Amino acid sequence: xxxxxxxxxxxxxxxxxxxxxxxxxxxELDQSASAxxxxxxxxxxxxxxxxxxxxxxxxxxxxAAVVAAVLLGASALTLYDVAAVRAEHPAMYWRRWxxxxxxxxxxxxxxxxxxxxVAAAVGLWLIVLALTPGLRQxxxxxxxxxxVRAGLDREAAALTLRDRALEVSGVRSxxxxxxxxxxxxxxxxxxxxxxxxxxxxxxxxxxxxxDLGLDRPPALSVHVRRPKKG
Length: 230
What we know:
Layout: H1 17-29, E1 33-38, H2 61-86, H3 93-104, H4 110-131, E2 138-140, E3 151-153, H5 154-166, E4 171-178, E5 182-189, H6 194-211, E6 219-225
Parallel strand pairs: 5-6
Antiparallel strand pairs: 1-6, 2-3, 4-5
Helix pairs in contact: 5-6
């Protein structure tokens, strides 16, 4: 009976015995890259905790402080001018100039359109800031019975997975980018078959993602290649 030929190898009628095995090994080592993508594994029932964890909301102190300072200054200036006019003092120059320009300037003027566009963009930006949680760098972790909300920084998660990947035999260097929905791994292997290295990386990194305790485990994308010849 003939033995099945492994994936990524090539046999010819003359490839028999030790010479055939050496030729197959050389062909496998000539493989330049190996990649795969896996969907996140479902969370075990015993690890779900008390409920789903939502993203952390950013305080956004700087935008709030800037908006509050601008509104406070404009309101105080306008209130002072109104009080001065009620006390039979002339209105401030900027208020008279603004009223005259608004009364005489056509709506299709370039500066009017530019000012309206800037005001609309700033307003839309403030609405987006108010309705979105922010803090994309923090990955929510599963809730525990103690009801403690915990989060893991994406850079810390990437560093942890990078250490796991470097423990795999044959990995020379690795780069990990952790996002909310996917972890991208780019590794360089200087020996061993690339498919074997990638399989070991898949196993190690899948276990590492599970150990992170994230509420929504991200998908895993692994790409292994040979070092560039230079």
